[in-house]
Design goal:
single chain; Transcription Regulator spoIIAA; coiled coil; 6-stranded mixed β-sheet; 832 residues
C-alpha cells in the first residue's frame, strides 16, 4: 500500500505571494459582508490552514452553503444565490489546475453567511457593489522585508491622504461644476470675513487672515475625510486668541507698530500650539475624546453659535458697526448686543439695511426654488446665487459710489509677502510659555468644534444616482486631527491665524452644492489667487452683503433646534434639555467659550461618574432550572421570568457578577458595594436600612465579563479575599477568561495563594455550578496538596499570525503536517 505524503498543491495556501493575496482579497469580501466573530475565525483559518487527510473525498471538503444563506448575506435574489452556492460548492483549483481542498467543513447555519459570499473569480460579478474591495498588493506577503514595507507604505499613504482614494473615481461630469461653483462662492464671502478676524479680533494685519484660509486649507483638503469641511480662522477662536494675547501686546504703553509686531508673533505661536496639540492627539489616537460631546451639548453649542452669529450679523446689516465700536458693545455678550440693536434700531442706515435684507430674501427664495424644482430643472443646482449677489452688489457699489452715501465697504487691503520662518526662536521662548496654557485650551475647543462639524455636515444624497459623489473614506477623528495638525504647521511658518473646522462656512459649502473635497481645493486656490493678485476687486464689496450671507448660515444653524427641543420634551430627556438651556444661557449672558467649556466640564463629570462606579451584580437562580442565573436587580425580558420575587437566592452563598473590566477608575467602591450586597442582597436598598441577609456567607464571583484587570484592581481583589478569609469564609472565582496575562498577574500578586484553601489548588472553576458543588461537598474542608506550577489550567490559545510572520508560520505548519503524516505512516506499518 503506497502512502501519500503532504502535497502543498492540495491545500488552501498557495506557494506564491500572488495566490495568497488572491485568497486574502476574496475572503476580505466575506468580512465586509458580515462582522460576526465566527467570520473572523473562518477568514483566518482560510488563510492559515492546510488540508486534512488526503484520503477524504473532495466533496467532503467543499464549502457548503444554501440559497437562503446566500440570499441573506449577499443581498442576491434566491436564483442568483443558488447559482452562487453552486459555484462555491465546486472544488477550487490553483493556478496550475490542481484541485484545492479545505480541512474546514461548515454547516450553512454556522458559516453559511461567509461561505456564501466567499468569492471565486468566476462569481465576482455577482457580489454586490458595496462588497467589492481592492485587490491586495501581493508584495504584502513577499519574503523580502523591503517589498513588504513598500506595499504597506502605499496603504498608509491612502489612509492619511484620502485624496488618493476619492480622486481616481471622481465623476467629472456629475459633480465638477457644483464643486467649482461652491468653492468660488465660499471664497467670495469668506475672504472678506477673514480680513475682519485678523484686524478687528486678533490685532494683526489683514493679510494674515487671508493666509489662514489659503495654504492651510489646501493641505487639509488633501488629508481630510469629511468631503465638505472648510477650515480656517473662526470668529470664536479668533476672539479667544485676541483675549489671550491682549495683556502681552499692550504691556508698557507700546506704539501701534509695536502692538502689531507683538501680535504677529503671539498669533503665530498660538498656531504652533494648535499644531503640537493636534498632532499629538492624532498620532496617539485620542480622537475618541470627541465622545465627550453629548447630544444636548451638541445642540446647545450649535444653537449658541447661531445666536452669537445672528447678533454679530445684525449690527453690520443695519449699518451700526461704527456705533457699536464707539459704545464698546462689540466686545459685550450676545444679550448686550441684542439690547443695543433694539435700542438703536431707529439709527439704522437705510441703504445698508435694504441691501442686507433684499440680498437675504433673494438667497432664501433661491434656496426654496432649488429644493422644490431641482428634480425638474437640473440647471437650478448650478445657479451660484450667493456669488451672483456678491458680484452684483460689488459692481453696484462701485458704479453708484455707495461708499459716499455711508455704506461700509471692505476697502484697501495690502498684498502679503510670504516669509517662511519659524516663530519659535531663542528670543520668543518666553513668549511661547506665556500663551501655552491659553493656546492648549483654545486648540481643544477648536477640536471639539471641528468634531461637531465632522459629525453633522455631510453632502446631501443626490436625487439622481448618476450624480453620486465618489467614494470617500469613513470619517475618522484621528485622521482629522492629523490633517488639522499639518494644516496649522504650514500656517505656523506663514504666521497665519489658527485653522479649525467651521460649522457655518461648511454648512454654507454644503448649501452651495459641494460634494467633495475639490470644493475646498477650489476655495483655497481662489483665495491664493485673490490674495496675491486680485485684492483690488473686493475693494467695493459691501459689508451688508456679507452680513446677508452670514444670515443664511445663522438660519442653517438654528433651523434644527426647535425640532430637537420638541423631541427632547417628548421623550422626557430632561438632562439634554438642561444642557441645551445651560449652554445657551451662559452664551447669552457671558460668552460662547464659557458656555461650551461648562458644557464639556459637565459631560466629563457625567462620564467619570459613570465610569468610576463598578457595575457589580447580584445573581439569583431562575426557578425550575439548575444552572440559570439572572441579575436579581434587573427583570428579564422573558415574561415568565420578570417576577423578582420568584428568583431563588442560594442559601449561605452570595453570587455576584463583575460584567466589565476592572481598572483603577472603577475599583475604589468595589469592596464597599460587595459589603452592601452581602447585607441586603441588592443595590436598590439604602445603606442606612437594617441588614436583610445574614452576614456569614461564602462568595462566588462570576468573572466572565472581566476581560481585563490592572494592578490596582488586583490589589483590591486581594484585599477582598483576605478580608473574607479572616472571617473564615470562602471566595471562589468562576468563569475566569483564559487570558494568560491576567492569570500571570493574579499569580504574581499572590491572589492564587489567597484562593488556595487547606492546601487545595486555587478556587477557579469553569462554571458557577462547579463552584456551588465544591461548596456543597465541603471540598475545602479536607486537606489537599497544591503544586504552584499546576496553577491554573490554561487552554491552548489560538495564535494570530502577523503579516510579517506569515511566511515563517506557513513553513512551520508545513513541517508539522509532514511530521504528522510520517507518524501516520509509522503507526499503519506497525498495525500491519
Amino acid at each position: 500500500m503506497k502512502e501519500k505524503g503532504y502535497n502543498p498543491e492540495e491545500h488552501d495556501i498557495s506557494t506564491s505571494p500572488e495566490d495568497r493575496a488572491r485568497l486574502l482579497t476574496s475572503d476580505a469580501v466575506s468580512l465586509r459582508s458580515t462582522s460576526s466573530t465566527p467570520g473572523y475565525s473562518f477568514f483566518r483559518n482560510r488563510i492559515f490552514s492546510f488540508g486534512s487527510n488526503s484520503a477524504e473525498p473532495a466533496d467532503a471538503n467543499r464549502i457548503r452553503t444554501s440559497p437562503a444563506d446566500a440570499t441573506q448575506y449577499t443581498g442576491l435574489d434566491e436564483t442568483s444565490a443558488s447559482d452562487t452556492s453552486t459555484i462555491l460548492g465546486a472544488p477550487r483549483r490553483n493556478r496550475s489546475g490542481a484541485q484545492l481542498h479545505s480541512r474546514h467543513q461548515h454547516s450553512p447555519g454556522q458559516y453559511g453567511a461567509l461561505a456564501s459570499s466567499t468569492s471565486l473569480s468566476s462569481c465576482a460579478s455577482q457580489v454586490p457593489a458595496q462588497l467589492e474591495v481592492e485587490s491586495l498588493d501581493p508584495r504584502l506577503f513577499s519574503e523580502n522585508r523591503t517589498d513588504r514595507y513598500k506595499a504597506k507604505a502605499k496603504y498608509y499613504l491612502k489612509y492619511y491622504f484620502p485624496i488618493l482614494t476619492w480622486l481616481p473615481s471622481y465623476p467629472v461630469k456629475a459633480v465638477l461644476v457644483t464643486d467649482i461653483l461652491a468653492g468660488l462662492t465660499i471664497a467670495s464671502f469668506n475672504m472678506p470675513l477673514s480680513l475682519s478676524y485678523a484686524r478687528t479680533l486678533c490685532y494683526v494685519p489683514e493679510r494674515y487672515g487671508l493666509l489662514g484660509f489659503a495654504f492651510p486649507q489646501l493641505v487639509y483638503a488633501f488629508m481630510s475625510t469629511v468631503p465638505v469641511m472648510i477650515t480656517g480662522p473662526e470668529p470664536g477662536t479668533s476672539v479667544m486668541v485676541g483675549q489671550a494675547i491682549t495683556p502681552y501686546i499692550f504691556a508698557g504703553n507700546p506704539t501701534p507698530e509695536e502692538v502689531e509686531e507683538r501680535a504677529i508673533i503671539y498669533v503665530a505661536l498660538i498656531t504652533l500650539v494648535h499644531t503640537i496639540v493636534y498632532m499629538i492627539m492624532g498620532f496617539l489616537r485620542l480622537g475618541f475624546l470627541d465622545a465627550l460631546l453629548s447630544a444636548g451639548l451638541l445642540r446647545g453649542f450649535l444653537a449658541a453659535v447661531g445666536i452669537v452669529l445672528t447678533m454679530d450679523t445684525l449690527i453690520p446689516a443695519l449699518g451700526l458697526s461704527q456705533l457699536a465700536i464707539d459704545t464698546g458693545v462689540s466686545t459685550q455678550p450676545a444679550a448686550m448686543k441684542l439690547a443695543f440693536i433694539i435700542t438703536h434700531l431707529p439709527q439704522a442706515h437705510g441703504l445698508s439695511a435694504a441691501i442686507s435684507f433684499i440680498s437675504f430674501g433673494i438667497i432664501i427664495f433661491m434656496r426654496w426654488l432649488r429644493s422644490r424644482y431641482a428634480k425638474q430643472y437640473r440647471f437650478l443646482v448650478y445657479v451660484p446665487d450667493i456669488l451672483m449677489i456678491i458680484v452684483f452688489t460689488t459692481i453696484m457699489a462701485w458704479k453708484l459710489r455707495w461708499d459716499q452715501q455711508g455704506l461700509v465697504i471692505v476697502g484697501q487691503v495690502d498684498r502679503p509677502n510670504i516669509e517662511m520662518m519659524s516663530p519659535l526662536t531663542k528670543t520668543t521662548v518666553g513668549m511661547f510659555m506665556d500663551i501655552l496654557t491659553s493656546g492648549v485650551i483654545i486648540s481643544l475647543l477648536g477640536f471639539f468644534q471641528t468634531a461637531v462639524v465632522a459629525k453633522n455636515i455631510f453632502p446631501d444624497p443626490p436625487t439622481d444616482p448618476r450624480y453620486a459623489p465618489p467614494k470617500n473614506p469613513t470619517p475618522s477623528a484621528n485622521r482629522e486631527l492629523v490633517a488639522l495638525g499639518f494644516a496649522n504647521l504650514l500656517g505656523t511658518f506663514m504666521f497665519s491665524l489658527p485653522s479649525i473646522g467651521g460649522y457655518g462656512r461648511s454648512k454654507a459649502n454644503k448649501i452651495a452644492g459641494a460634494r467633495t473635497q475639490l470644493s475646498s481645493i477650489v476655495f483655497a486656490l481662489s483665495t491664493i489667487v485673490v490674495t496675491f493678485g486680485l485684492l483690488p476687486l473686493i475693494y467695493y464689496l459691501p459689508r451688508p452683503t456679507l452680513a446677508a450671507v452670514l444670515g443664511l448660515i445663522c438660519l442653517a444653524l438654528l433651523e434644527d433646534a426647535p425640532g430637537d427641543i420638541i423631541y427632547y420634551f417628548r421623550i422626557h430627556a430632561w438632562a439634554d434639555l438642561a444642557m441645551v438651556g445651560l449652554v445657551i444661557g451662559v452664551t447669552l449672558g457671558v460668552s460662547l467659550q464659557l458656555g461650551v467649556t461648562i458644557g464639556i466640564g459637565i459631560s466629563v463629570i457625567q462620564i467619570l461618574s459613570h465610569a468610576t462606579k463598578p457595575r457589580i451584580q447580584v445573581l439569583a437562580r431562575v426557578p425550575g432550572t439548575a444552572s440559570t442565573f439572572r441579575n436579581a436587580d434587573r427583570p428579564s425580558h422573558d415574561v415568565s421570568e420578570t417576577d423578582l420575587g420568584s428568583l431563588e437566592h442560594v442559601p449561605g452563598v452570595l453570587l455576584v457578577r463583575i460584567p466589565e473590566p476592572l481598572m483603577f477608575a472603577n475599583t475604589s467602591e468595589l469592596e464597599q458595594r460587595l459589603r452592601r450586597l452581602e447585607r441586603y442582597g441588592t443595590m436598590k436598598m439604602h445603606p442606612s436600612l437594617p441588614a436583610t441577609r445574614r452576614g456569614e456567607q461564602n462568595v462566588i464571583v462570576d468573572l466572565a465579563g472581566m476581560s481585563a484587570c490592572d494592578t490596582t484592581a488586583v490589589k483590591v481583589l486581594c484585599s477582598i479575599v483576605s478580608t473574607y478569609r479572616a472571617k473564615g469564609k470562602y471566595v471562589l472565582f468562576a468563569r475566569l477568561v483564559s487570558e494568560r496575562s491576567m492569570k500571570k498577574l493574579f499569580k504574581r500578586a499572590g491572589l492564587n495563594r489567597l484562593l488556595s484553601y487547606n492546601g487545595h489548588p486555587p478556587a477557579y472553576f469553569q462554571s458557577i455550578d462547579e463552584a456551588l458543588e465544591a461548596l456543597d461537598e465541603c471540598v475545602f474542608e479536607t486537606p489537599g496538596s497544591w503544586v504552584e506550577e499546576d496553577d491554573i489550567s490554561e487552554p491552548e490559545e489560538e495564535k494570530a499570525l502577523d503579516e510579517d510572520d506569515l511566511v515563517e508560520s506557513v513553513g512551520e505548519l508545513e513541517t508539522e503536517v509532514e511530521s504528522v503524516e510520517d507518524e501516520k505512516v509509522i503507526i499503519k506499518r506497525e498495525m500491519v
